[in-house]
Specification:
single chain, alpha/beta, Alpha/beta knot, Trp Operon Repressor, Chain A, 2 domains, five-stranded parallel sheet, three-stranded mixed sheet
């Protein structure tokens, strides 16, 4: 997958190249990252990319010309999706990461800065995405979050693909708890069922854990999960 980022701080993305399995995915050619600085496409010798907003107000606004020039210089691959990082966008969900990782060969990220974008930049994007109800100084961190989440889903990035199917948010439910050695740590015991060798009992226990944990910590997700599968099950009936 090709990943293109339009950003005034392209150096912010350098750490991704050496970040664990994500860095190895880039090294192996599973994904490739290209950063484009709008200042390189500015129209004046001062490389000006922002200006005062019409109508007055605080802050500066990113000009459309350098953003469009940077965007139009990016090679186009088949099945491309353009994402604009914005606190006004749709909240990011795991399903979005799966959709982008599965259906597209190229993602382009538009990262804002200063007070925001000139409104005429928005039509470049297919989607506007937010990582939460808060505001940051730029779109670089949200873009890195999405890049991390997408690349780890690409085939060959994670050694055990089955682990991706069991983690939190893969089916709306949060992941069950995990334990490893020692069996007793400062008086805290590993549940007996996990040491029983009974794989059926372990699977049922983990399912109950997922449901109970989601109901307690994220009732909104639990309600969505119930609507997705309204038929009662033994696991659901037996949980607190």
């Amino acid at each position: 997958m090709r990943l293109d980022v339009i950003s005034l701080a392209p150096e912010a993305f350098a750490p991704l190249q050496g970040l664990g399995v994500i860095g190895r995915a880039f090294a192996a050619g599973i994904a490739e990252l290209h950063c484009h600085n709008p200042r390189d496409y500015a129209l004046d010798r001062y490389r000006k990319v922002d200006d005062e907003p019409y109508g007055g107000g605080a802050g500066m606004v990113l000009k459309p010309e350098p953003i469009y020039a940077a965007f139009e210089a990016i090679p186009i691959k088949e099945k491309r999706r353009v994402l604009l990082m914005s606190p006004q966008g749709q909240p990011l969900r795991q399903d979005d990461l799966k959709r982008w990782a599965t259906n597209y060969n190229q993602l382009v990220f538009l990262c804002g800065h200063y007070e925001g974008f000139d409104e005429r930049i928005r039509p470049l994007a297919d989607e506007e995405v937010s990582i939460g109800d808060f505001v940051l100084t730029g779109g670089e961190l949200p873009a890195m979050v999405i890049i991390n989440g997408v690349v780890r889903l690409l085939k060959g990035t994670v050694g055990t693909a089955a682990s991706l199917e069991e983690e939190s948010h893969s089916s709306l439910l949060l992941e069950h708890s995990h334990y490893t050695r020692p069996a007793n740590f400062r008086g805290q015991e590993v549940p007996e069922v996990l040491r029983s060798g009974d794989h059926g009992a372990i699977a049922r226990w983990r399912s109950q854990q997922q449901q109970a944990r989601t109901k307690e910590r994220r009732p909104d997700l639990y309600a969505r999960w119930l609507k997705q599968d309204p038929e009662p099950t033994p696991d659901r009936q037996s949980q607190p």
